[in-house]
Amino acid sequence: MCGIVGYIGSRQAYPILIKGLKRLEYRGYDSSGIALYDSGLNVYKKKGKVSELEAFCEGKNINSTVGIGHTRWATHGVPNDVNAHPHYGQNKDITIIHNGIIENYDSIKKALSKLGHQFESDTDTEVLVHLIEEIKTQENIDLFEAVRLALNEVVGAYAIGVISQDNPDEIIVAKKGSPLVIGINEGEYFIASDASPIIEYTKEVLYLEDGEIARLCVGQELELKTIDNVVKTPYIQELEMSLESIEKGGYEHFMLKEIFEQPKSIADSFRGRLKLDTAEVKLGGIADYENKIINANKIIIIACGTSWHAGLIGEYLLEDLARIPVEVEYASEFRYRNPVITENDVVLAISQSGETADTLAAMKLAKDKGATVLAICNVVGSSIARLSDGGTYTHAGPEIGVASTKAFTAQVTVLTLMAFMFARKKGSISESYYRELITELETVPAKVESMISMNSYIEELSAKFKDAQNFLYLGRGYNFPVALEGALKLKEISYIHAEGYPAAEMKHGPIALIDENMPIVVIATKKGHYEKVVSNIQEVKARNGVVIAVVTQGDTAVKAIADYIIEIPEVAEPLTPILANIPLQLLSYHIAVMRGCNVDQPRNLAKSVTVE
Ligand code: AGP
What we know:
By secondary structure, this protein is an alpha/beta fold. It has 19 helices and 26 strands. The strands form five sheets. Strands 3-2-4-1-10-9-11-14 form an eight-stranded antiparallel sheet, with helices on one face. The chain has a six-stranded antiparallel sheet with strand order 5-6-7-8-12-13. The chain is globular, with a radius of gyration of 25 Å. The termini are close together. The mean pLDDT is 94. The chain binds 2-deoxy-2-amino glucitol-6-phosphate (AGP). 2-deoxy-2-amino glucitol-6-phosphate is lined by residues 304-307, 351-353, 356, 359, 402-404, 492, 605, 608-609.
């Protein structure tokens, strides 16, 4: 949550900050602000989107070659102009941007209040800048040292940028728990929560590690140390991201672009890993852990939201094909419920962003208990990727829309590869079935392409349901997690209440909700307990529910009883979730657009949840 940017060099900072904030708006968008220096610090901040900040800055003094900016997802204090970042210290000569939470802000605030500090906002961040200022004055030290000492007093998570009036030629940055990337170019530095605001200026980057602090000074080498005062050598690396991959490329929304990219992103997630000529599946990042996984007491998958749904499909795949026991846990529950973990367990974290606070904390807990911790991540170099003992990237490319689409199908593809690989190694499926499965996986991108060509049909269908108040999604077996994901997608971007259920559970409660106003999406593909699902559809129809059925091409039985049909190409059962998910993404997208919702930035949400 929250995005931060910064620039120092010889260019005008304002356009770089505004453009960067727009790229980071997916991380939070309830208010934004910037701080610039032109013979004094100028802070401009505004409730609402970055475009509102931009309008507010018109006619103001935006001349500056140094600046910091922030786009907020509120934690402490309602979204308004005052709580927006940057925040000043008491004397308004230091200002800060912050992504994270200072957990002990209240006790620090009380201590500072006794010393005469007065606070304007309700935020934890304002307390931190006052603390830095107090230490700087009391100890008579420079800003770098004052920030370092202040950070030794705080508990919590932070990625911060600090500038001061006394020395406007430097930005001090530090990180713990929240991401921070520094872009390095001749005579200039950029900072950001991810590389997207930096990519068009430089490819040389430094990912700050937890507990590190850096001084970025015009015309000087970057100075890096830990907050414990240990000097470090910066590890500068080259970005692989392209500018094109983070732009809309003619689509109305990032979400639609990302849905349409799936034939490619799915292919990218198995490219080089699936070799049909030798019938091999290889996942380099987990190669060293193959035996550990196969002989594991159990695999514990930890994730949140959509990634948790991918994990659930992973459980079905790994247990069905590789016969390895799997548990799937919400990271937020796992970390607080004293789980039984042993050295013989393998914990597999799944995350698009690689920054989700609960998933990170659950991984740390598993590591402390001696488990091997692996990860499936989309964002290269992210905290989760770096914390894991090993793992594999999904290679879906940057996902900007808050609602996860292509990252989900890439996660499922990677889990599918894992299940195939371990099943063969264990001999838990026949060689002929293994070969059939890997050959079918190769056909998935083309089949997804054919699903995407149904876009106009699904748009027409969406028009019929855009005013519904509730939705039910039903599926069995491999299609149960697809039902959960379909419901989550609809509720997060269209604000329609939706529930996903195992089809057979309907009789145990949700059936009471069914009437002629209730659209029910049933995933009723040929191989997944088909007859049983057909019976569930009959039960819905007997209560006048409106059925939208996702069926296998050529189906006749469901066609005869459902109100609307979406056909998907025939595919081996373990591959059904990838295909069945695509029309549900499109249905949610079109309904949300028709309801006038902001699909890329739904209310109250943020792309990466870096607070617990
Ligand atoms: C997906 O559409 C959601 N916005 C959300 O549930 C997301 O999947 C969840 O926050 C986990 O994020 P991660 O994959 O980046 O860890």
